[in-house]
Design goal:
0% of the residues lie in helices and 46% in strands. The chain has 95 residues and is mainly β. It has a single domain, classed as Thrombin, subunit H, CATH 2.40.10. The chain has a four-stranded antiparallel sheet, with no helix packed on it. The chain has a three-stranded antiparallel sheet with strand order 7-8-9, with no helix packed on it.
Length: 95
């Protein structure tokens, strides 16, 4: 966290969040605009816990289907992701 921003060194840029969800454990899931990435941060937003990458998530009319919205369902242990330029969602089972 620097001046109110989380810097993601792997992306070489300041993430532009376009979809955010806080899990029941307090972790923050952040869709990063213009990338095929969702970051999992701690509850304070200071430490990255995991990076989800959607390589090969497909293209629609020449555009990448980037993650735009994210939700964690604790009852099914799934991460549900809405995509830009697509009517489909992606569902990941997590442990």
């Amino acid at each position: 966290m620097t001046d109110g921003y989380f810097i993601e060194p792997d992306l070489h840029t300041r993430p532009r969040p376009c979809g955010i969800h806080v899990t029941t454990l307090g972790h923050v899931l952040v869709c990063v605009s213009g990338s095929e990435t969702i970051l999992q941060l701690d509850g304070e937003g200071k430490k990255k816990l995991a990076t989800l990458t959607f390589s090969g998530s497909g293209r629609h009319k020449g555009r990448h289907n980037y993650p735009r919205s994210v939700f964690y369902n604790r009852h099914t242990a799934s991460i549900i992701v809405g995509q830009s330029f697509s009517t489909k969602i992606i569902v990941f089972k997590v442990k």
